[in-house]
Amino acid sequence: MSQRAVHKAMFESVALAAASVLQTSSTCTRKFIISSGESNNGVGSTNGPAFECILMKDFLKSLSKRLKGNIAGYENYHRVYVPEGQSPKFDPKEPLRVYVLFQHIQKMLSGEIAVIAETGYSWFNCQKLKLPRKCRYEFQMQYGSIGWLVGVTLGYVQATPKKRVMISCIGDGSFYVTLLDISIMILLIRNRQ
C-alpha cells in the first residue's frame, strides 16, 4: 500500500484512534497503529484497519495539512505575556488585570509565605514569580487536574507547624469544583481558637 493510500485511509475513518508503540524489531523501529474500531474500554482497538511502520513525523505532517488554523491561543498568549523585567503601565481606574495582580503578589512575597498554584493561568503566572529565600512554592504539574488547590491548601495549613501566610492562586472554575472544602477550613479554624 502506498504512503498516499495509507494517509487517505487514515483520514477517511469516522472514529480515529492513534497510538505510538515502541518496537524492538530491526525492520521497524517505530510502530504507529491507526484504528477505526473501538474497544470495550473506549480507548480504541486494532479491529479495524491497522497501518504499521508509519513514522510519527509523517503522520503529524499529513494531519497538519488537514487541520484548520486557530490562532486564538497564540493571540491570548501575546495579550497576557509580559516580558521579564518590564512592568506594563496601567491606569488605576481600569479593571484589575492578571499581570497587575501578580505584580502585587510579587511585592508581598517573603520567606514566611507559601505560594500554591492551581493548574492553568494561575500556574503559568506563578511560574514567573521570583521567590525569595525560604518562600515555599507548591504546584500540581503532573496531572493538570483542576480543583487540586483547595484540598492542598487545607492539608498544607494543617501540616505546617508554624503559622505561615499562604497565597493560593486558583481560577474560578477550579474553585467552583471544590468550594465546599472551604466549610471544612472554617470548622478547623474555629476549633483552633
UniProtKB/TrEMBL annotation:
What top-tier enzyme class does this entry carry?
lyase
Q: Which is an annotated GO molecular function term of this record?
A: metal ion binding
Name the cofactor(s).
a metal cation; thiamine diphosphate
Instruction: Give TM regions.
Output: 141-159, 165-189
What are its E.C. numbers?
4.1.1.1
Q: Which UniProt keywords apply?
A: Decarboxylase, Lyase, Magnesium, Membrane, Metal-binding, Pyruvate, Thiamine pyrophosphate, Transmembrane, Transmembrane helix
Annotated catalysed reactions? a 2-oxocarboxylate + H(+) = an aldehyde + CO2
How does this protein assemble?
Homotetramer.
Family indicated by similarity: Belongs to the TPP enzyme family.
Q: What is this protein called?
A: pyruvate decarboxylase
Q: Which source organism?
A: Vitis vinifera (Grape)
